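Fold this sequence, please.
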Amino acid sequence: MNRVRPLAVVAGLAVAFGACDEQLNGGIACPALCPAPPSSLRDTTLFAVNLDTSIAGFPAFGNEFQFLLVSFGDTLETGAAIRFDSLPRTWQRSNASDDSSIVFIDTGSYLRLTILTGDTIGLATTIEVYDVDLSGDEEADPLAVAAAFTPARLLGSRTVPADSLRDSVRVPIDPVFLLSKVQDTFPANRLRLGIRVQQGGNPRLKVVSTNSGGAAQLVFRPSPDTAVAVPTLRIEPFSRTPADPFLANDLADYLVVLKGPPPPPPDVVRVGGLPARRAYLRFDIPANILDSSNVVRATLFLTQRPNGLSAEPDDTVGLGHFGVVSGSSITDITRALFFLQRLTNRDTLRALPTDSGAHAFEMIDWVRAWRGTDPLKTPRAMGLASATEGEKPGYLDFFAIEAGAAERPRLRLTYIPRAAGPLP
């Protein structure tokens, strides 16, 4: 019996392996019952991106929650435009039944700005206020006010020590100029201001916008009479144009780029900057891999192009990748880039603008989500966006599909082909 037992075990194993070998060519059920041979795992790298571009304008124009005012010389200089298109022409004395016309504005009028962050231990910051009313030329192009930041239009400035940059700052406004605006006839009785920080000292300041509930305020007293209680008038930003109330609300205050970096070359997609850019990449993956295989890994490789012209090139830029879920009804890429979604909390790429080389983005979740879908109804596209969009001025450049074969985007897929043949 001791000799029989080993022979019985060997015979049983032989039958089992024979059965597996016998079913290997008998149908697609065998890979589920028997271990797949290592040769079935395939790996390929292909140029799957057939369209890529980068679009500037994020957050949407006039929808900024904060304004990053910087003055970095040739690399970047920004400002903000603030509209007060409804200025009061009268004020009411205490215990008076009739309003009094504003014929005087007391000294001490100022523009109050709410500060989001300030450097309280660095150098002093100089904030300047300009008259950027172009008599209607800025109606067709709101960004035309960038040409109005000239010494002749300077209305006031203030240099604030670092330890005083805590929650708000008051910049004086010339009361004589302000009175002329108040008493002017419609529609010229309005005030449109531009703000920026001066180069030198601390050339960076974050100011709260109307969209985050911390609007700037125009503050003045309409009388020098100290014998009676004179109310202090506080005016918040308001735009009368254009006629669409939603668009007019966006133009109450908005970011203005006074000097920016040159646009990216044709063979480069850019992510980040001010106003921030997002990148759009559309994929064309062979159906025999996407729909007829089990994809176990998908990695997108983008080659970074070093750029020393980025603002703050020594500051790390964070970047995330997302799926575009806009649907086929939205054909405009700019609008499509507003519909980004992340399936998993994957790590964000962090790199310096001056870095170079290939960066890997794991996108297996989206490749699996595209399986079995119609590309005409479900665009197979991804978006790249800065993790600090609108908050930091740095950007990253990547080579586009127009670049050489060694630098253009490429997709590496690891997959297991489905076994051919009928079900047993």
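The chain has two domains: 39-57+263-417, 77-259. Residues 6-11, 13-32 have pLDDT under 50 and may be disordered.
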